[in-house]
Amino acid sequence: MKKLSTVAWRNLRRKMSRTVLLAGSAAITAFILFVSYFFVFSMERSIAASASRLGASLMVVPEGFGGQAGDMIISGTPTKFYMPESVLDKVRTISEVEAASPQLYLETVSTVCCQTSGDFPVVAYDPKTDFTLKNWTATEKQIGKYDLIAGAEAGGKNYIYHFDNEYMQEWVTLFGKDFMLKNMIFPTGMGTDKTLFITLDAARELNHKKNKLDFPENSISIILVKTKPGMEEFVSRQIDRMNLNVDVVKGSGLQETVNKQVFPVKMMSYMMIGLVLIMSALQVMTMFTALISERQKEIGMLRAMGASRAVTFRLLLMEAGFASVIGATFGSFAAAAALYDNRILILQLLQLPMLFPDWSTGLLIGLGTTAITTLIAIVAAFFPVRSTLKLQPYEAIREGEY
Amino acid sequence: MIVLENICKTYRIGRERKVHALSDVSETIGAGEFVAVVGPSGSGKSTFLAMAGLLERPTEGIVRFDGKDVTDLRDTERTRIRAERCGFIFQFPSLIPTLNALENVLLPKTVHRTYKASDEEWGREMLARVGMGDKLENLPYQLSGGEQRRVALARALINKPDVILADEPTGAVDAYNADVIMNLFKEWNAQGKTVIMVTHDMKLAGEAGRVIQLKDGRVAGEK
């Protein structure tokens, strides 16, 4: 028997019930960690999405329509105003602009989308430059020219049930052309919820044809601008100086509000995770305190026959580590399976743009949670082991006899 | 080889009470000696053995091993001396339940991280010498108390120690097993190795070259 790990492994097998308890505790910790990480990660994403959407640093609209810009975002009511697309290019020349994406407000149409009928405003957007809608969508699918994104109240809620089923297709006819429903937008509490989004390229191709679409060539309605942090005012002035005949509306206040509202929830989540970790550590510590006192004589004997403190430490911590790795791997796997299996139910219940980890991300989170759980178990086992190893071998043998 | 100079060992029991396990004990055990330590229960025999085997530090006094003061030596150094120079036999069942006889014998090599492939052969030989050559793969629960004690003896000898320290090695074993153990001690001693044996049994003590008698933590006599 060459390896210390063999001794540790056999010791674990010797007391199966104790090992199962230790591994079970690690499994629960890993499960909670995995799920919590997923929820916190998704919540962060949700906050980022709110910030991008509600607080798009600036909105640029044709001159005289500044007062309506906020309404458009909040109510989604398309107002027919246009400005040349060249404005977008000029805004992009400002180096403090991180992203700028155009939208074109088209018409309100009466239609049925994903078993939901109603009057839905249709807005054209540019998938290539979009930085607002993408944060609210259910999946990260590539959007083609004639693909459609539905707001939550415009059929999106029904679409959730089969959003990742590529064999179920929904088609909606708009302006005489069939669009395939490709994605949905989670509830935002704004006009977006009742809006249907098509691509700018599709809208321009359908313009002036045998349908109701009629807007000036190469025009857009609004530019959503994301500036570098703290540069909103500066960019706003820069745009004013360009004399583009536009109004610039600021939207950063909303972002702060959202952050403030979500902050306590975020803190609560972190606190819960912290408590779970502390509880788990205490559990392992209690278990190891009992285990060590039960094996004090054996530890003294090992020390007598030449096991140094470091080697004895390693042997006992290896036992904690092995049990935790097994438990945590199982817990992480169970969490990933439970989340994946119930993804539609979770989306339905939470109505948030949750980001379900793909296989590689899931594996990384699993490895991370397993590593953290194992580390907690090892650190928790460290203290009772250390106090026993402070004893001289004969002292440990004597104390172990009582 | 081992010198105990004015050794006192006091154990604290609770906050107030102190027990003097050894009081001013001075002894010199030469290389190749076979010493038996006898005395009634609570006389300090096991503590004497722990001092000589570097398993415990004295409250007062000096312990010398091969002329070197090892009393306050760092723990790693004391561990190294124990691993390389000493072999212990305890009075309690001391085999690891999940390891078979051979693995138990090789355990000192494993925990001291000096395991070599050739050790396995030596382990088999030691087990054969204590009459356990046919039970290498047996787990402790498959062995009788006497057989377990013989495996423990083989384990004590795996490092070819210079000193064997045995605490009641024949306690709770039958006459046959006691004979096997004593014969091996004598054989080992005849090769120039030191044996220090704690026992209640005056007949067994008579087989040693010298008998140290302890009473109330003090040396009460020597034969």
Which strand order do you get reading across the main beta sheet of chain B?
6-7-8-3-9-10
| Strand and helix order of chain A | HHEHEHEEEHEEEHEEHEHHHHHH
Largest sheet of chain A: 9 strands, mixed
According to CATH, the homologous superfamily of chain B is: P-loop containing nucleotide triphosphate hydrolases
Describe the oligomeric state of these chains in a short phrase: heterodimer
**How large is the count of helical segments of chain A?**
13
Distance between the termini of chain A: 31 Å
* Estimated share of beta-strand residues of chain B: 25-35%
CATH architecture of chain B, by name, is 3-Layer(aba) Sandwich
* Cα gyration radius of chain A (Å): 30 Å
Description of the molecule:
The complex is a heterodimer of chains A (402) and B (223). With 402 residues, chain A is an alpha+beta fold. Chain A has two domains: 4-50 and 263-400, no CATH class; 56-250, no CATH class. Chain A has 13 helices and eleven strands. In chain A, the strands form two sheets. In chain A, strands 6-7-5-8-4-3-10-1-11 form a nine-stranded mixed sheet, with helices on both faces. In chain A, helix 9 packs antiparallel against helix 13 (393-400). The longest helix of chain A has 43 residues, at 252-294. The two termini of chain A are 31 Å apart. The mean pLDDT of chain A is 82. In chain B, 48% of the residues are buried. Chain B contains seven helices and ten strands. The two termini of chain B are 19 Å apart. Chain B is globular, with a radius of gyration of 17 Å. In chain B, the strands form two sheets. In chain B, strands 6-7-8-3-9-10 form a six-stranded mixed sheet, sandwiched between helices. In chain B, strands 2-1-4-5 form a four-stranded antiparallel sheet, with helices on one face. Chain B is of the alpha/beta class and 223 residues long. In chain B, helix 3 (101-111) crosses helix 4, helix 3 (101-111) runs parallel beside helix 5 (145-157) and helix 4 packs across helix 5 (145-157). Chain B has one domain (2-222): Rossmann fold (3-Layer(aba) Sandwich), CATH 3.40.50. The A-B interface holds A 1-4, 7, 10-11, 13-14, 297-298, 300-309, 311-312, 315, 392-395, 397, 401 and B 46-47, 50, 53, 55-57, 75-76, 79-80, 82-84, 88, 90, 92, 94, 96-99, 103, 106-108, 110-113, 115, 155, 159.
